[in-house]
Design brief:
The chain is mainly alpha-helical and 142 residues long. The chain has five helices and two strands, in the order ααββααα.
């Protein structure tokens, strides 16, 4: 049997980071002083952010059953996140209410047109009792 060693995702990321840092550091001897100072400052900032994220126990990416999820962090903007997640639901509800209102307006307009045709037309009273009369009015209007 082969000896299989399991590596935690954090350790794997640290090893990858070290390898990338070694490769990047290999070519810094030829760079001008200003560039090396900016790179050093960027490294210090990256390490500080990594340490603060590690201390808080919050990683920006979590693995859940083979799928990655992005955590926006604990920046204290829970209210804005909740508002932003509720906006699509509010837009959907507003759209459904608008569609309902438009459909009701169309139905009311159709009924008003039929009533106007009934009141302004010279027909015998038996025509009003005919079940196909409404269909006749709709077809004659078109």
């Amino acid at each position: 049997m082969t000896n299989v060693r399991f590596i935690e995702p954090g350790q794997q990321a640290d090893r990858f980071g070290r390898r990338v840092a070694q490769r990047l550091s290999a070519g810094t001897a030829e760079l001008p002083y200003g560039v090396t100072e900016r790179l050093r400052a960027a490294r210090v900032q990256a390490v500080a952010k990594r340490k603060s994220a590690h201390v808080l126990g919050a990683s920006p990416v979590f693995a859940l059953g083979g799928a990655g999820t992005l955590n926006l962090g604990d920046s204290g903007s829970h209210l804005w996140n909740r508002i932003a997640s509720a906006l699509p639901l509010i837009a959907l509800a507003a759209g459904l209410i608008l569609i309902h209102a438009v459909q009701n307006e169309r139905r009311a307009t159709e009924v008003a047109e039929v009533d106007a045709a009934l009141l302004t037309d010279d027909l015998p009273p038996a025509a009003y009792a005919d079940p196909g009369f409404v269909q006749f009015l709709k077809s004659s209007r078109e």
